[in-house]
Amino acid sequence: MRILAALLLLLASLPLTAATGTPAPPQGAESNLQLTQCMSLQGSLSRQTTALAELQAHSQALSSQRELERMRNESRIQALENEKARLLSAAVIAVLILLLAAATSFGLLLRKRHRQLRRLSEVDVLTGLGNRRAATRKLDALAAQRGPDGTRHVLFLIDVDHFKQINDSHGHHVGDEVLVALAAKLKAACRPTDLVARWGGEEFLVACTSLTREQAEQVAARLRRAMAYTLETTHAARLITVSLGLAPIPFFDSGDEPSPASCWDYALRMADRALYAAKRHRDAWVGYWGAQLPDNATAEAVLEQPEAADGIVTVMSSVPRIVSTSSAAARARSLKALRAQG
Q1: Which pairing describes strands 285-290 and 242-249: parallel, antiparallel, or unpaired?
Q2: Can you list the pairs that 211-214 forms with residues at least 24 positions away whose Cβ atoms lie under 8 Å?
Q3: What would the pLDDT profile of 140-192 be if each residue is shown by its tens digit?
Q4: What are the residue ranges spanned by the domains of the chain?
Q5: What is the pTM of this model?
Q6: Contact call for residues 277 and 286 (beta carbons, < 8 A)
Q7: CATH code for 132-289?
């Protein structure tokens, strides 16, 4: 723009010179002056062109630099957004992991508490032995199994002799001490695999697996001796004894054939009758061991009169008189009382 302006000024000055009537310089001087002016204008034009080119190059460089800076900023923004998304994803995953861990921990805690509550609900508070509920559950599982040939599971029902007299004479707190002491002695006399429980009141229950009849007799004698001890009181010493009744599971030797008499509750009822017979003598044990049940007798009839079921029930006892009495009763009574009652 500056070059064009200079050319216009030059052209405008030529007519003015002629119009003024100023004497024109000689023709050669005028040509030299115009040449000089043209060369000056050409140089100025060249400089302006160079400056314009430099200005354009500088402008392009600035534009390129701004574009590059914009691209860099966009790249940084994209990187920040990617980092933000990554952090957000990591945070979500971390929260999910924490929630999963918390849920797992809570579930494990609930299971632990459930096991603790179940354990507490199956433990006798006074003696620390299993209670009737725990014993019932374990007896269900025990009755479903069968021992090796020639053996059966055996139930022992144990009752403390003269326990009411102990409570009446020395107080219930002494009675509780007696139960705690007997429970500890009973637990120590049994195998780790044996079921030992407080059945209720002053009664204890023991279940041993896979015993022969002779072994059952030995266990009964051992338990009776192990639980006897002398109670020292402020007034006098008192001998504490127990009576036991035992019966096998299944009660009859009927092989694997299922029947009501193969359940543990039938054996428990038979052990209870044996305990009743032992209680007549105190500090004794009595056991009933069933053989094969004939077709002309029922399990319920045998349960009513086990000592009269000669050839069906073997009576065992620490008191020989009980065995001889049962043999005499068996000879005196007919098996007609044990026949099927329809």
Answers
A1: parallel
A2: 211/147, 211/151, 211/152, 211/153, 211/154, 211/248, 212/150, 212/151, 213/248, 213/289, 213/314, 213/316
A3: 999 988 889 889 999 999 999 999 999 999 999 999 999 999 999 999 999 99
A4: 132-289
A5: 0.66
A6: yes
A7: 3.30.70.270
